[in-house]
Protein 1
Amino acid sequence: MQAQTEGRREANLALLLRTLRARGPLSRSQLAAGSGLSKTAVTPLLASLDQRGLTERAGTTTTQGRPGRLVRLRPGAVCGIGLDVHPGHLGATVTDLTGEVHLRRKTACDTSAPEHALDRLADLTRRALDDVPGADWTGVTVAIPGRADRATGTATAPRLRWREVSVVDGLAARTGLPIDRLDVDNEANLAACAEHDGDPVGHLVYLSGDHGVAAGVIADGVLVRGADNHAGEVGHLALDPLGSTYCACGRRGCWETQVGLDAFLDACAPRDDRVHDPRLAQGERMSIVRGRAERGDARTLDALHRTAAALASGISVLATLLNPRKIVLGGYFAALQDWLVVPQDQGRTRVTASTLGFSAGGKGAALAALRRVLDDPTVVPVKSRPADDRGSGAPEDDRTGSAPEGASA
Ligand SMILES: [Zn+2]
């Protein structure tokens, strides 16, 4: 019975955290209305969040003539680190519970050598910990453009030439961080979760437009992983059965050989052209493509036209198969959205461009690293003892003077 009560309290704390996260500064009454809990139940729960340094005061509001103190999530209180791995470079993103990105860093790296890549990922992790001091760290999640086995912490990614690489063990050994704070997942899955976090539509598909093409599928608000954790590898749908190009998976005819970034850039320009230069950021390479399209370059326009047609074919398959409310195009599909024209409506499915850029997987990974706290705020230790009138725990109609700001400096 006691355990059940504890479980309910943790769930209610998580509910308040999510309500504050979704709706911004709220008074106790607004929080009660928004969460469905009673005002009496909210008061001690808010005190608990406050003692953990997760919330702070945010001014007052006046409702029905009575001032009410507003409470919000404390920016920078708890942070998650997302790492993303791509052929030729790595990225790091630090996000807090409010969704604010505190750090985004990118570094060139020969990712085809897994041990070297893990060394650099450990460097990025240490630098992120140093550069955002004063935060509680929930963990690190690594986004992989391939298959990630979360149970074993390993990843296999043909485009990186990674096979059963022990990502979690490797990072734990290099950083000294505990294994239960480290995780690895597929980047399209993580990007889909990041998109869903911004717009919690129940049925959503995120389509990554990078060297590889993969889908993160959310159905009824839940990420679809499949029996073997391989759901969403749509880049390997055989949509081009007469195609002559071999895919990274070893087969021919994969959708990725038509709409993957490499296929697109090959169609745009010869291999010695600047758009193929891996030292340039994807965004810069897309700017070059865009410039040529605007000047009417025939080869670029033809590549855009053919890629858009192949993209539309695959999108119609996804819309028919999965019946999502929304398909979000990521990566270079989003960067060239004005030129890669695909039908915006597939029945009742809307097709939109992501605003998260090429680092959507890294942003989703940082968010995933925060999941531990979002699911159970009590994993953050209590920092202060309850006081008579301190911080956000005090009820809004408490008439005593202003509270100290606590450790928010
Ligand atoms: Zn393939």
Note: The first strand starts at residue 55 and ends at 63.
Protein 2
Amino acid sequence: MPNYLPSVGMEVHAELATQSKMFCRCPVAFGGEPNTRVCPVCLGLPGTLPVPNRSAVEMVLKTALALNCKIAMTSVFHRKNYFYPDLPKGYQVSQYGETNPLGYDGYLEIPNGDGGTKRVRIRRVHLEEDTGKLMHLPNGGSGVDYNRAGTPLMEIVTEFPPDITNPHESREYLQQLRQILIYLGVCDGKMEEGSLRCEPNISIRPEGTPKYGTKTELKNLNSFRSVQLGVAYEVRRQIAVLETGGVVHQETRGWNEQKEASYLMRLKEEENDYRYFPDPDLAPMVFEEAYIEGLRNSLPELPLAKSLRYQNELGLSEYDAGVLIADREWSKFFEEAVALGGDPKTSCNWMTGDFAKMLNEQGIEPSQSKVTPKHIVDLVKLVEDGTINGKMAKQLFAESYQDGRLPSEIAKSKGASQITDVGQILDVVKKVLAENPDVVAKYKSGNLGVKGFLVGQIMKLSGGRANPGLVQKVLSNELENY
Ligand SMILES: [Zn+2]
């Protein structure tokens, strides 16, 4: 059997996080009663005129810049003509051509698993409008809900021949892309609600063959996991077809989440002729250089760059960096803590440990809690300078989380600071040894394991306040001379 090389092209649709639709003022939202967010424009009634949504155009431009694309300084909308009930106008407003889409000829970097990055070339980033949704009615028959019709939709397509060569990279690409869209604030990234949709096309070819194989397109993938599983499944399926003397057909296949298998939806006999032409109702978009440069300069630090900076400059592990950048608010919180002088690793540990747990229990965001970066830094410093030990720190943090006071204030009011006075510790050690002569005897006869019990008793008697390092030292010394 020859070695087969997979190639994966990615087509991603992202619903833009605008307030209103692409060409009318109907609000954009998820769910709700069918056909309650519609008007004559998005229903395509005769005599209406579309007005483009400026903020949607800006969101696509920002995305194109973040994806290192060239920008079409003059860009037009086309009509893509086809008939389907979810398309009230009989055409979809989209953007056709190689250099007409708002962004083209760019790339996205994905981690290569080796501390470096791999470049996935982007062919185009364009703006179009979403369709309505067909739905089955409870009493039988079908209906159509136009609430989604006319929602601004961005399409991002990778270059051919594809740079993605395995299922893992497909998932990685989508994860990086989703994070960028969320950082830019242009899409909420909710795959389960369909605001981010991914349709990979997959082909295989025997190693050494220059010609790419026939590709199949996969739909209904609504999680990162299903993208990876789906691509892996298609690669295996196509290999099996070729190895049994069959032919891979160009077809659209659906993904069955329960069976973890793809199924045939429709064969693509030939390319549809959509009779694209420039929409006569919409003027060409023309951009000034200064406007584009302004947008370029307004881009935030992107997730992958941030992750690498956390690892290389702040000494975090790849895992920790990943947890912090997964949420923009979370990484902002962390950066503020570091700016206030908090040790990066320790601050990160408190955030991803106790703090994250408490937030999760309440189901709230960091900004909704009483804990600020200042609280984390305050706590980290109390532990660093030996004022309190780890166990006390946990207690103080829990109280801080409840009432919003700084850990150092709580410590002061309680006199909860750590005992570092050797004389004071010695008193406690002596008392515990006197109370446990049998344990001391065991230790003296060679059972060194019982020392842990004695440490426990000492800590307990000191109310958890004794400095653990000093306790070890004083206890060892006392046991020697007992
Ligand atoms: Zn409308």
Note: The chain has three domains: 4-290, 301-414, 422-480.
